[in-house]
Structure formats: C-alpha cells, structure tokens
C-alpha cells in the first residue's frame, strides 16, 4: 500500500502518481518492505514532489524513509548527501542508521576450581594484580579459605599472584612454602609464567582451570 503524504489517499503499491490528487509522484526504486532484514541500513533522505503550478510554492520536500543495502550506502553515500542538500534548500541531510549489533565485550578470564572443597567455584581475574592465598592476615583477591580441608591446609596466606595486563595473563609464585604449579610444573619463587586457556594451576591442594 502506497499512501500519498499530501492527501493521505491509499494507492496501490504499483502507483506512480497519487490517483486522488495527482500531485505526488511516488519515487521509483526499492521500497522499505523489499529490503528490511539482516545486514541492511536505513537512510533518511528527501523525496521531492511537484504540484501543477509554476511557482516555487508548488515544490515541497518530504522526509521519508528509504532502505538500501550497506554496500550501496558505502559506494554512493557522498553523492546522495551532496544532492540532497544542494538540490533544495529545504532538503534534509542523509542520516545513516547502522542496524548491525555492537560487538560484545570479551568476558574477563576466570579460574574454575576442578579440585577442592567447592568444585566449579569461579574466580574472576581483574586487570592488574590478583593475589591468591588465605585472607587470615592480609586481604587477597582469590581467597582459598574454605577450599582446603581444615586438616590439610597447604596454601600460604600470600601464595601467588596472577597479573592481567593488556590481554595477557602471568602467574608468579610469592615464595610460598609448598610451591605453585602450572600443568604440574613447579614455578621458582619470583618466576613469572604466561598462562593460556585450559592451563591447570595448583595452589596448595586446590587446582584451577584457566578459562579465557
């Protein structure tokens, strides 16, 4: 259905000129219903119509939605915008609305407990230093309190630290009594090692899987 914006008469979709007033000429080319879908862009452009008069008052600019593909917009946007503004002082500038969903922010890395008192517990790794240990004397970011049996506590209060910087994960042992292990390999105190997804970290008796 093609509605005339002057007299609001409902014309057939194939109509080139309004059947009632005869003053509005429907634009040739794609319509909104033909192109709405994934990967398309909507433009707000000017549509000109002429009345059967010789004076300038018979010329109008009507703002209406047109829908075109992204490739057409990228190849012809400069030409369309210049014509819309320079052809008529009342014309509207072309406005592009990109319907592509914004990319989701990447999820922060996590440690998932695979051996401990609370299996499947997750710890988020934040930017900067993330201290691992038991919050008995000093606060820690990854608190192992309750993850080890009270009869077998092997983690130190300040056991290790994980550094998250510019998308990279590093782990360092802080001279712990029982050591820090990555994929069963023990780290020397002060030694830093890069972590990757699915690496297994052992701190005390607790084991974590790295998820990135």
Automatic annotation (TrEMBL):
Gene3D superfamilies: 2.60.200.20. Signal peptide: none annotated. Residues 130-187 form the FHA domain. PROSITE patterns: FHA_DOMAIN. It comes from the Bacteria. InterPro entries: FHA_dom, SMAD_FHA_dom_sf. This is Zinc-ribbon domain-containing protein. The lineage of its organism: Bacteria, Pseudomonadati, Planctomycetota, Planctomycetia, Gemmatales.
